[in-house]
Amino acid sequence: MRLFEYLRSKLNDDLELSALFRLVLVFVLIWLLMTTSGFLMDIFRKVWSVLQPFAIGFFIAFAIRPLIRKAEEKGISPKISIPLLYAAVLVFFVWILSTIVPTMIARASGFLDSIVEGLGWIRDLFRQIAGDNAGFLPAVSDQLMSWLSGMNINIGDILGSTMNVFIRVIFTIIISLFMAFEWNGVTAAILRIARRFGRRTYAAVLAVSDEIGDYIRSLLVLMLIRFFEYSIVYLVCGHPDWLILAVLTSISLLIPYLGPTVVNTAGILSALTTPKAHVVLLIILILILSNTDEYVISPLVHSRNTHITPLWALFSIFAGSTLFGVTGIIIAIPVYLAIHTILHMDQEAEE
């Protein structure tokens, strides 16, 4: 009884009306967010779809800025270097659409079929070894095979989507071109706004710019290296879908840890229909390349330590994909690096 009386007296003394009001207000805000989340997310996605070309265009201009500065150091005016760089980007993109994309579309169905056959081979092998004690693995394989077999690859839909992407990319490149010409004005405006919030904000913007810039430029170099590495590997192993796997391996770097693992697994599964000596060679080469890329090539390419733990990488990618879809996956790691840099600076300031 004394304990109950003590607790009641403490509540009467400490729990003021203003505190109760704030607590009720928090619960009301949570309730409003929960009830209007669908409507708000729909508006948010529409706004983001409008801003998306401008955001991507800014990142493109940001990524090629060091090349423009190097050209200026060699006496080449930005009026010459910027159009040349963007013309090269446009030619590269058109080349991909005219050569690599048609090949990938033509081989997409065969690639999926080879993965299904590989899963079936593993399922049958496991049933022969384990017998009645095979457990859940055969059932999981059957589900994956059913899902992959049910994927309907409509060439017309793919071509239509490709044209939509092409038009959007052209629009994004044009926006980025204008941003590149007006880069000094854009950055000056951003830094002016940062200065109004104080010196720490100004320093944080500069630090985030350096961190994300290093990540983007290093990522592009690593993607190019991975494309050539795995093109050679899959060609040597006689894989019929070497081009698809090389492109997917390169793109998978946008999703650290998870992306390369999934693509390597798909490459091995689809190779099970080839001679077993080729499969063994492929597994050995993938193991060697994975460790070489992780511990040798990546540290050499990155000019600073931008190591991201797997847990935070996966959380960032999941959050980005939930909020912004495919674009969210692409920007997830840069956003994480920006937040991590700001928090690290605050921690250093407190110490």
Write up what this structure looks like.
- This protein is mainly α.
- It has 2 domains: 54-181, no CATH class; 199-351.
- It has 13 helices and no strands.
- The two termini are 47 Å apart.
Features:
13 helices, globular, 351 residues, mainly alpha
Distance N to C terminus: 47 Å
- Which strand-content bin applies to the residues? under 5%
User: Main β-sheet: number of strands, strand sense, barrel status?
Assistant: none
Q: Which oligomerization state do the chains in this entry correspond to?
A: single chain
Helix content: over 70%
What order do the SSEs take from the amino end to the carboxyl end, as H and E?
HHHHHHHHHHHHH
Q: What would the average pLDDT be, to the nearest integer?
A: 77
Number of strands: 0
Task: Quickly count the helices.
Answer: 13
Structural Rg = 26 Å
Outline:
globular
- Indicate the structural class: mainly alpha
Spans of 5+ residues with little confidence (pLDDT < 50)?
none
Number of domains: 2
Structure at a glance:
The chain is mostly helical and 351 residues long. The protein is built from 13 helices and no strands. It has two domains: 54-181, no CATH class; 199-351.
